[in-house]
Amino acid sequence: MTAAGLSTYSADVQAEVAQVREVVSALHAELPRWELVVWTAGNVSQRLKSADLFVIKPSGVTYDELTAESMVVCDLDGNLVDGTRNPSSDTAAHAYVYRNMDHVGGVVHTHSTYATAWAARAEPVPCVLTMMADEFGGDVPVGPFALIGDDSIGKGIVDTLSTSRSPAVLMRNHGPFTIGKDAKSAVKAAVMVEEVARTVHISRQLGEPLRIPQEQIDSLYDRYQNVYGK
Ligand SMILES: O=C(CO)[C@@H](O)[C@H](O)COP(=O)(O)O
């Protein structure tokens, strides 16, 4: 597929595109490294600061074949602006999130095993671990069932995450989508949601895990978000 390209954009925008292509390409390597994907089943994107554009992977290309140059650039309606291949099949969902959540700079989708197992049951992961309180500020919520092809998935993500502190949503019968201030933060949330989905699942084999009281969740979330690592 060909597109209009970046020639009408300023040198600053083109420079940022080149830099974000490197970032997004490198972050795709984190998905198999953390065992969050099989074959081509997951994608990372990052929004530009200097223009209403984002960078995402081309569809159906294996992670070991991805390069910075092969990353595609889309506008916030999901139209291809620059790149030689079709953008990821989840581009419309990423674009919808960027159009409707101004604070989001990165989006990730995977089909990681444990998080997707919870999604298949449409059950939120209950906040029973301090690392869940830290990262998610409560339960990891479930979003609606939605078919790929229009704005349904994006709307489900936005509607669910707009009423939660969680940067992760388990889209019913599908899998996790995560958001962050940039793509790296969204990848981190994808790693964390898989980890807690796995741990809580294992805990359940031993009995019913104990929910953390809301006051303690709030305290842990505040410390991790505002003090930890600063
Ligand atoms: O969820 C889906 C399809 O149901 C996608 O995540 C694909 O599995 C990955 O697609 P590309 O990013 O390679 O288009």
Describe the structure.
- With 230 residues, the chain is of the alpha+beta class.
- It has one domain (11-226): Class II aldolase/adducin N-terminal domain (L-fuculose-1-phosphate Aldolase).
- It contains eight helices and eight strands.
- The protein has helices spanning 11-28, 30-33, 91-100, 113-121, 130-136, 152-161, 183-206, 214-226, and strands at 42-47, 53-56, 72-75, 80-82, 106-110, 142-143, 168-171, 175-180.
- It has an eight-stranded mixed sheet, sandwiched between helices.
- α4 packs across α7.
- The longest helix is centred in the C-terminal third of the chain and has 24 residues, at 183-206.
- The mean pLDDT is 97.
- Bound molecules: 5-O-phosphono-D-xylulose.
- 5-O-phosphono-D-xylulose binds next to β1.
- This is L-ribulose-5-phosphate 4-epimerase.
- Keywords: Metal-binding, Zinc.
- Residues 22-201 form the Class II aldolase/adducin N-terminal domain.
- Belongs to the aldolase class II family. AraD/FucA subfamily.
- Its cofactor is Zn(2+).
Structure keywords:
230 residues; alpha+beta; L-fuculose-1-phosphate Aldolase; eight-stranded mixed sheet; 8 strands; 41% helix; binds 5-O-phosphono-D-xylulose; metal-binding; metal ion binding; L-ribulose-phosphate 4-epimerase activity
